[in-house]
Amino acid sequence: xxxxxxxAFLADLALNNRKAWMDAHRVERDDAMRNFAGIxxxxxxxxxxFDPFVADARIKPKQSYTKFFxxxxxxxxxxxxxxxxxxxxxAGHPTEDVGYYLHIEPGNCYAGAALFQPSKAxxxxxxTRLVDNxxxxxxxxxDPEFKKTFPDGVVTRKPLGAVPDDFVNSDPAAPYLKxxxxxxxxxxxxxxxxxxxxxxxxIPIFRxxxxxxxxxx
Length: 217
What we know:
Elements: H1 4-15, H2 19-24, H3 26-45, H4 52-56, E1 85-89, E2 99-104, E3 109-115, H5 120-132, H6 134-142, H7 144-149, H8 174-177, E4 182-188, H9 190-193, H10 198-215
Antiparallel strand pairs: 1-2, 2-3, 3-4
């Protein structure tokens, strides 16, 4: 599903994270982007096997994966470009709704369901849901299949040091209110992503992750 050349491009980008290098490798960049769009189409084509709402949604492949350039508000570290990509299968928008994703990064690949880079409005909705129904999330995390597939539970890429204003530390959802975007992840070996049958591995992962998607609907 993921082409070897895509992995090679991401690995080289991680070592040469400069505009001059990216400009000199536009052909490889564009080839990788076509690969990501193709993966997005594959996830959508098989969505009827893990989420009918995604299957019924219209897809725009070029808007179904993260871009290389990092906007200042989303930037992690000093790198100008992301050397990793998330490919989405969403019923809504990847910055507004929790959905399914495949994370492609040499040596650090995984899949699950998440909203890792929410808009301000989406983040507010996430927090409201967590406060209004903490027991719903607790039930998901206690589900044996969810625990087996996602042993780390709910994770984030951007933690806060304290509970946001207007919330209290005693709130049952406090640990999750400190997350700027959240989701679940199942680690995958790089070699697995090169296999044409990867979708058969992703489908059961997405089915289990669907509990988190439905919780935030």
